[in-house]
Write a structure and sequence with these properties.
397 residues, alpha+beta, 5-stranded mixed sheet, 5-stranded antiparallel sheet, 46% helix
Length: 397
């Protein structure tokens, strides 16, 4: 019996028929897999499951008692009817098999580390995720986008989750006559650069002045960063891990929306308005978690993948970063801007140290690259970085 592990989720693949003739063997195989991989969220993939009898349903019930809510995904119509008829759709998270969409011949309109965006037709685009991005992260992103929209943040409307071969995809409305902010900034030889950046900064301020919390279904981004630090334990010494954790814990608690990856490639410009996309990491926290992303991109502006993600050259990334601070903080005073940049740079180093957990699908050599950077840039000057963290309240952010 096949299975995979992604993050803390164990996925076991069911196939063929499960009935009284083979249920004991199937149950034994599943128990062995679960025993070898304890304390993980459990998902059954039913893509190749043709039929399940009452005996098979009873075997699933046993695992529900020990694991709580269990997901059964990629369920065919016939098998879904069995789950629904017996009431199992109320006991399990049963997800129907997704329709398959071809992107052959479609125009590529955007590229990130975890996904690519293609134009499907005049009205829709499809965001195709890296094959290593699990289903639950995609459904979470759609859910968070809807919650942010209801909280007053302009976001693109998602229609449904689909398959693109072996990859998952999400079909979104195509925002008419819109380009991402990066391409808009450099259009017409940058004639509208400052106008767009003023609106861009205003959108970031809107999020930072919108209060939400976990009761509204939003995660704590401070908690997310602590989880990232925990995930990086195998890469760092105990002392280094303690320094990462201490710096995160120093950040004051706030209940305002942060995007956690707010940049010119994750926003669209349409008829003078900014629309926010890519809501995978949105939550509530102190605004520093958004400024850490901006400073990180400025530090990494020479990297080709950062330039592709932001749709900007190195020079324009640095210009964009300066303009964001000027418009957000409404100042051109050099001393003030340098003070802010110092604080944000410290958190950019922290973000870089945790980056492999934000994009868990990146190759090992790239993970080692970010760990090496942290040992070069962050840990040798950790006392300085901690002082910057302690200044967050003093600067009124």
């Amino acid at each position: 019996m096949e299975f995979t592990i992604n993050d803390n989720r164990l996925t076991i693949y069911l196939a063929g028929r499960i009935d009284s003739n083979n249920v004991a063997e199937v149950e034994r195989d599943v128990q062995n897999i679960v025993k070898q991989n304890p304390d993980r969220d459990l998902t059954f993939d039913a893509d190749k499951l043709q039929y399940i009898s009452s005996a098979g349903l009873r075997f699933l019930l046993k695992f529900r008692k020990s694991h709580g809510k269990i997901t059964v995904e990629n369920v065919s119509k016939d098998v879904y009817d069995i789950f629904e008829m017996t009431g199992f759709t109320r006991l399990f998270d049963v997800q129907k098999k997704l329709r398959n969409v071809s992107i052959e011949g479609c125009e590529l309109v955007g590229t990130g580390l975890s996904s690519k965006v293609y134009r499907l037709d005049a009205d829709t685009v499809i965001k195709v995720y890296d094959i290593h991005v699990p289903y639950y992260k995609i459904t979470r992103e759609i859910d968070l986008a809807k919650k942010a929209f209801l909280a007053g943040i302009p976001t693109a409307i998602s229609y449904d989750i689909v398959r693109c071969g072996e990859n998952y995809g999400v079909v979104f409305e195509l925002i008419a006559n819109a380009m991402n902010v990066g391409n808009s900034l450099i259009a017409n030889d940058g004639a509208d650069f400052d106008t767009i950046m003023e609106k861009f900064a205003a959108m970031l301020k809107l999020m930072h002045n919108t209060e939400v919390d976990d009761a509204a279904g939003f995660p704590s981004i401070k908690g997310t960063w602590l989880d990232w630090a925990e995930g990086m334990k195998p890469y760092y010494t105990a002392e280094e891990f303690n320094q990462l954790e201490k710096m995160i814990l120093t950040v004051p608690d706030r209940k305002t929306i942060v995007h956690c990856d707010f940049h010119s490639g994750n926003t669209m410009y349409q008829s003078g308005e900014i629309v926010v996309i890519d809501m995978a990491d949105v939550g509530y926290a102190h605004p520093i978690f958004d400024f850490a992303a901006g400073a990180f991109h400025a530090l990494m502006s020479g990297q080709a993948n950062v330039q592709r993600a932001l749709s900007l050259s190195t020079a324009n990334i640095l210009r964009y970063w300066d303009a964001l601070l000027i418009h957000y903080f409404e100042t051109t005073e050099e001393t003030r801007l340098n003070e802010l940049k110092d604080i944000f740079k410290a958190f950019a180093y922290l973000r870089g140290a945790l980056f492999p957990m934000k994009h868990v699908q990146i190759p090992d050599d790239l993970k080692k690259f970010y760990v090496a950077n942290a040992r070069r840039d962050l840990f040798p000057q950790i006392d300085w970085a901690m002082r910057q963290a302690e200044r967050l309240t003093a600067i009124g952010l």
